[in-house]
Amino acid sequence: MMPNKEGKTEKLLQKEALIFEYLYDGVIITDIQGNIFAWNSGASRIFGYSQIDILGKTPAILHKPEIASKLTKQIIQKIKTHGRWTGEINFIRKDGSEGVSETTVTPIKNEYHQMVGTIGINRDITEQKRVQSLERYRMEKALQESEDRYQRLIDSSPEAIAVNYMEKLIYINCAAIRLFGANSQEEIIGHSLSQFIDFNYTARGKKQLQRVQQQEKLIKLNGEVIDVEIVKIPSNYNGKTATQIIIRDVTECKKIEAKLIYEKFHDMLTGLPNRILFLDRLKLALSRTQEHPNYQFALLFLDLDRFKVINDSLGYTIGDQLLVAISKILRNCIRASDILARLGGDEFIILLEYPTDIDYITTVATRINRELAKPIYLKEHEIFITASIGIVVSHRNFTMHAHENDSSFSPIYNNSEELLRDAEIAMYRAKALGKGRYEVFNLTIHNQAISLLSMEIDLRRAVEMIKENPLNSQFILNYQPIVCLSTGNIVGFEVLTRWQHPIQGLILPGKFIPLAEETGLIVPLEIWILQTAYYQLTIWQQELKGKYTECNDKFLYSSPNFRCPTDNFIMSINCSSQHFSQSNLLEEVNNILPQTNYQPNSLQLEITENIIIENISLATKILKKLKNKKIRLSIDDFGTGYSSLSYLQQLPINSVKIDRSFVSKLDSDTSGKTLKIVNTIITLAYNLGLEIIAEGIETKTQMQQLKRLKCNKGQGYLFSKPLESNDATKLLRNFKYPL
Ligand code: C2E
Ligand code: CA
Ligand code: CA
Fold first, then answer.
1. Which terminal residue of the chain has fewer beta carbons within 10 Å of its beta carbon, N or C?
2. Ligand positioned closest to the Cα atom of 576
């Protein structure tokens, strides 16, 4: 190097050193030979050497000998090519202790761009490094611990977990060992999962990265097959996809699920499909008729007759057994492909597929009733039952061979509810026509249903009217005299209701009372009847004051229990089952009675046997309370119901009315059977101290027979038809039947 140039270089280095003297970082300036030329106080603080110690020496003194020359070479190399070297350097202080610096080395160049030295700027990061490595150690330790914990967790997890890698199981936990039916991991590890589970284990590529959940069958080592749910979670393992697999035994869940599904769609008692399932099948059948015009089907809507009576009298257990027995009988009456369902209660429904013609359908209905007619034996009971069947055919062009003259009518059905409704209407028709039979839905039934609907609207209006003003009524009360068969005197009246319809004219109770019962309108209607009849009774009682001679029929009987029943004049009022059991009949009676000078034993309620049998304990309770109010109680239509002779003695009643069906047969039945029945009824009633009223006496012979059988009262066209109040009053004044 030339002297003038050398002087210049030195100046240059000194200038640089001057600049960096006050820098906090440690600055080391070396000349081109690599010897330390300048060294600031920052460097002394970091490395522990004073300027005097260090000047003229090389920076290698600051490093371990084994790395020193290599490091120097690296740095020189780098600054020559890249103009700068930056890195962390492990150094040794003067006192031998170690430290770390973050160092940047750049060249010092002269005006000719020749490198004349280097400048190294060092920041002491020893403390920072120490903290960092401590932190890293802690973190690593924590990670290790957490991994251990995780492993333990997985090992002992109740959930079966396995890892599949390259088509082989490489890990399974204890729960999985148990699930596979193995004793140790070794029995499973190394095998392919598809050996145990039969699934499409071919998902590749993109799909493999997704979590997959599927239900499969797992074959245990002992061959047992269970239902499992598998969750596959893909993960990366050495660059290849491994799959973590969670396997859950869902056999129990599946069983419960299947049971719930079954219960949702089946009737638990009979095991038959229920309404939900049936409606579903019906919808299917209906849509098939729309797609295939040749496909036809029929519905048979069955309702058991008098099931309630059997259920209430023999108990629910027998009732249930009977339903099961009937479901089996029904099943045997149809083809396997036909659908039989229980809609609820005593209602069943059948969907007959591909009926050839209407004869085929009615034959099935006939067969059902023939099979049901056979006695069913349950425990010691021999039960006879019939069903009313309503039939509806899916197709409007259905050939109605059997009813060709009938105004055949099958509308096009759009929905299953309509079909079901029409089948039900036809069933009610079958019930109304005498039970134990079938009816095919047709135009006539359709029109009847419609007129019933309009009648219901009119009835509702008529009932509203009497509620608003009891004197403004479309209903009329007729009174039929009850005659003492020994004196010929009128001893009372039965109240019979008529409806003066503004358009249709007079409607008899047989037509509107059932409708009133069905719609609940019967209760307000009968409250009005009770009030009106009672009002009429008070008028007649005035009329009769002093005039009324007591019926002296005691001579007919010698029973000590017997009280002369005609102490008072009777107003006998029919009471529907709804009014009797569902409304507050007692309260009504209370409301009516105290208002006037009511004479006890004048008001009589006629109730039918069925009301009592339907709920005997409730009926007895109500009857007792009524009796306490001095209301007379009579069993109407006696003998037609479910032989209630045995109940008679427990009931607080006053009289029985022998049904017209017996009375009318008295003079025509040559077998003497009717006579026997009537005799039995009278004797029984007589022994219980009850009064007997015979209904529907039309001929003298009937009356004579009844007198001979010691029946004390009678009613019928022979004496008088039911009359309006004015005519009844006239009759009351003058009437005495010539006996
Ligand atoms: P029911 O209680 O058995 O009434 C007797 C029915 O037989 C009455 O028919 C009566 O007119 C009729 N009858 C009376 N004597 C003879 C006779 O000699 N020969 C013939 N063939 N028939 C006779 P009606 O008035 O048509 O009443 C029919 C049914 O309607 C009654 O039968 C009763 O069950 C019911 N009913 C009438 N009014 C009421 C009422 O206010 N409430 C309730 N719940 N039902 C009523
Ligand atoms: Ca009656
Ligand atoms: Ca009757």
1. N
2. 1
The identity of residue 154, as a single letter, is I
DSSP 3-state of 370: helix
Enter the tokens of residue 378.
């349950």
What the chain holds in terms of domains, given with CATH numbers, is 2-124 (3.30.450.20), 157-254 (3.30.450.20), 266-441 (3.30.70.270), 468-733 (3.20.20.450)
pTM of the predicted model, to two decimals?
A: 0.53
**Ligand 1 lined by 523 (C-beta under 6 Å):** no
Report CA(525)–ligand 2 centroid distance (Å): 16
Does residue 275 have a pLDDT over 90? yes
Q: Distance between CA atoms of 300 and 711, rounded to whole angstroms?
A: 46
> Average pLDDT for residues 50-79, to the nearest whole number?
91
Q: Over the stretch 92-108, which tens digit does the pLDDT of each residue have?
A: 999 999 999 999 999 99
Distance 636 CA to ligand 2 centre (A): 6
For the Cβ of 513 lying below 6 angstroms from any atom of ligand 1, the answer is yes
Tokens matching residue 719? 């004496």
> In which band, very low, low, confident or very high, does the pLDDT at 386 lie, cut at 50, 70 and 90?
very high
Indicate whether residue 574 lines ligand 1 (CB < 6 A).
yes
Q: How confident is the model at residue 505 (pLDDT cuts 50, 70, 90)?
A: very high
The answer to whether residues 393 and 298 touch, using CB atoms and an 8 Å cutoff, is: yes
Query: Ligand 2: distance of its center to the CA of 739 in Å?
Result: 24
| Strand bridging mode 376-378 / 381-383 | antiparallel
CB atoms within 10 A of CB 3: 7
β-bridge mates for residue 304, sequence order = 387
From 574, 578, 611, 737, give the residue whose CB has the most ligand 1 atoms within 8 Å, as the site to mutate: 574
